[in-house]
Design a protein that fits this description.
Structural class: alpha/beta
Number of helices: 20
Shape: elongated
Distance between the termini: 56 Å
Radius of gyration: 26 Å
Largest sheet: 5 strands, parallel
CATH topology of the largest domain: Rossmann fold
Number of strands: 19
CATH class of the largest domain: Alpha Beta
Helix content: 40-55%
Strand content: 15-25%
CATH architecture of the largest domain: 3-Layer(aba) Sandwich
Length: 477
C-alpha cells in the first residue's frame, strides 16, 4: 500500500502521539517545529496532509497566514488542518473561512482528522471520488467540503462552517422529519424564519402550506383570533366568521414567532393544541382538531420568563424538549465570508450589476464588524455595496462608513459606551438621555410582559417607533 505523508507542525507533543495511535500504519508522520521546515517538507516531500498547530501566543497571525497562503498556492492537493486557541487572530479566521482549511479551536478533534485522512486515502488508493467520513448524517445534510455542511430544502439551503451549527443542522433535520413541535431561539435577524421554512421543506409536509404568525406584530387581544379563528359577533369587530391560521394551514406547518408575547390564557390554549391538537375558535363551542405541524420561535430564552412567572412551566418544558439555539452572526465568523459572497451573487443578479471580483479589504472589514443586526444586517449591507459597485470590483469603499470603522452606531449599548468614556470625563447629555430612555423602555416592557403593542400604547408612541428605539439600544435579543 502507498505511504501517505502527514506533516505535523507543532510545539505540542500530544499531536503526533495521538495521531500515531489513531492513523493506519500506511501513514508516515513527520514532525517539525519551524515554518521553514514545514514549507520544505510539504513542497519537496509531496506531502498529503499538514496539521498546522497554532495554539499559543501569535503576533497577529500574519506569519502563519503567509505560510498557509504560500502552501495553498503551491500545493493545491495538500489538505490542511489548523488548530488555534479560542481567541484566534482575524487573519487566520479569514484564511480558514475563505478556503477549505479545516479549522479547530481549543483542542484538536483528532477523530475528525483521522476520518478525513482515511477517506481521502481510500479515494487515492482506489482512484474513485472521495468518500466522506462515515457518519450517521441525514440524507439531505451534505458535506460540500471538509469544513462545510449544507442542509438543503426545495427553495433554500442553510450552509455553515461553524462547528456548533454543523451538529445542530444534522439534529434539526432528524427532528424535521417527525411530527414534533420545534423551538428555535435566536436574536432578531439571526435566521429563525429562514430556518423554519427550511424545516418545513425538509419535512414530509413540504408540499403543504407554510404559514407565519408574527405574534409580536399583533395586538394581544387579537392573537387568539388570528391563531384559532372566531365566530361572527364573538367580539365588537367580528362582523363575519374567520378561519384561523391553524385551520388554514391544513396539514402544513405553522410558525409562531415571538412566542414570548403570549399571555397566560393564550399559553394554556397553545399547550392544549400541542398536546391534543384540539382548539375552539373564539366565540364557538365546537372543538376542531388541528393537523398542522408547529414551529415556535423567540428572540429570548424562555427560562427567565418562567422564573418570573410570565411563562407557564408546563408549556416551557413541552417546548424545550426540542430546542435549537441559533448563534448570532458574531459567533459564526467562519460563515461570514461565504454568506457575504452568496449575497453578492444574489444582489448582483437582482439589480443586474456585474461583480467580477471582491477586494480583500472589504472581506476584512466584514470579518472585523460585530454585526448586531445579524444575517439580516449583513444582507442589507451587501445589497448596498453591490448597488454602489461601478467597475465590477467590489471594494471596501462601497461599504457603509460605520462598517469600515467598526462603529456599531445606534445599536451599541449606551451603558458600554458610557463606561468606555469614563476616563475622558462625564457622559454627554445625549448619552445620559439615551441611558434613561433605555431604562424606561425596559421597565415598561417588563410591566407589560414584553408585549410591544401594550408597551407602545403606555409610552404614547407607535409600535414602529418602539421597535426602532429597541433596535437602537440593542434590546431586540
Amino acid at each position: 500500500m502507498p505511504t501517505v505523508q502527514f506533516v505535523i507542525l507543532s510545539q505540542h507533543a500530544d499531536c503526533s502521539k495521538t495521531l500515531f495511535e489513531l492513523l493506519p500504519e500506511s501513514f508516515q508522520l513527520i514532525n517539525c517545529d519551524s515554518y521553514e521546515q514545514a514549507m520544505v517538507l510539504c513542497l519537496e516531500k509531496d506531502s498529503h496532509f499538514l496539521l498546522a498547530d497554532f495554539r499559543g501566543p501569535l503576533a497577529g497571525g500574519h506569519l502563519e497566514d503567509c505560510l498557509l497562503d504560500e502552501l495553498q498556492k503551491k500545493t493545491p492537493n495538500l489538505t490542511i488542518f489548523m488548530a488555534t486557541d479560542e481567541d484566534c487572530p482575524e487573519t487566520l479566521e479569514r484564511r480558514a473561512a475563505c478556503s477549505d482549511i479545516v479549522h479547530f479551536r481549543n483542542s484538536i478533534e483528532f477523530g475528525n482528522i483521522v476520518e478525513t485522512c482515511t477517506a481521502r486515502f481510500s479515494q487515492e488508493s482506489e482512484n474513485v471520488p472521495i468518500v466522506e467520513p462515515v457518519q450517521e448524517v441525514p440524507a439531505k445534510t451534505k458535506k460540500q467540503s471538509n469544513s462545510q455542511i449544507v442542509l438543503g430544502g426545495i427553495t433554500r439551503q442553510f450552509e455553515t462552517r461553524t462547528p456548533l451549527l454543523k451538529k445542530m443542522l444534522c439534529d434539526l433535520e432528524v427532528a424535521a422529519k417527525h411530527d414534533v413541535t420545534t423551538l428555535l431561539i435566536g436574536e432578531t435577524g439571526s435566521g429563525k424564519t429562514f430556518l423554519s421554512k427550511l424545516i418545513h421543506e425538509v419535512s414530509p409536509r413540504r408540499n403543504e402550506p407554510f404559514i407565519n404568525v408574527a405574534c409580536g406584530a399583533l395586538p394581544r387581544e387579537l392573537i387568539e383570533s388570528e391563531m384559532f379563528g372566531h365566530m361572527k359577533g364573538s367580539f365588537t369587530s367580528a362582523h363575519t366568521d374567520k378561519e384561523g391560521k391553524f385551520l388554514a394551514a391544513g396539514r402544513g406547518t405553522i410558525l409562531l414567532d415571538e412566542i414570548d408575547v403570549l399571555g397566560p390564557e393564550q399559553q394554556v390554549k397553545l399547550l392544549k393544541v400541542i398536546e391534543t391538537g384540539e382548539f375552539e375558535p373564539v366565540g364557538s363551542n365546537k372543538t376542531i382538531v388541528s393537523q398542522a405541524r408547529l414551529v415556535v420561535a423567540s428572540n429570548m430564552n424562555l427560562q427567565p420568563l418562567v422564573e418570573q412567572g410570565k411563562f407557564r412551566p408546563d408549556l416551557y418544558y413541552r417546548l424545550n424538549m426540542l430546542k435549537f439555539e441559533i448563534p448570532p452572526l458574531r459567533d459564526r465568523k467562519p460563515d461570514i465570508i461565504p454568506m457575504a459572497k452568496k449575497f453578492v451573487n444574489e444582489m448582483s443578479s437582482k439589480h443586474n450589476i456585474v461583480v467580477e471580483n471582491i477586494e480583500e479589504d472589504l472581506l476584512g472589514a466584514l470579518m472585523a464588524y460585530p454585526w448586531p443586526g445579524n444575517v439580516r444586517e449583513l444582507e442589507n449591507v451587501i445589497q448596498r455595496a453591490v448597488i454602489y459597485c461601478q467597475d465590477g470590483i467590489l471594494k471596501s469603499e462601497n461599504l457603509p462608513q460605520n462598517i469600515l470603522v467598526g462603529d456599531v452606531g445606534p445599536s451599541n449599548d449606551p451603558t458600554v459606551m458610557l463606561s468606555s468614556k469614563r476616563e475622558s470625563g462625564a457622559a454627554s447629555l445625549g448619552q445620559q438621555v439615551a441611558l434613561t430612555e433605555r431604562e424606561i423602555i425596559e421597565q415598561v416592557l417588563c410591566k407589560n410582559n414584553h408585549s410591544r403593542t401594550n408597551t407602545a400604547k403606555e409610552l404614547g408612541i407607535s409600535r414602529v417607533t418602539l421597535y426602532n428605539k429597541m433596535k437602537k439600544y440593542d434590546m431586540s435579543k
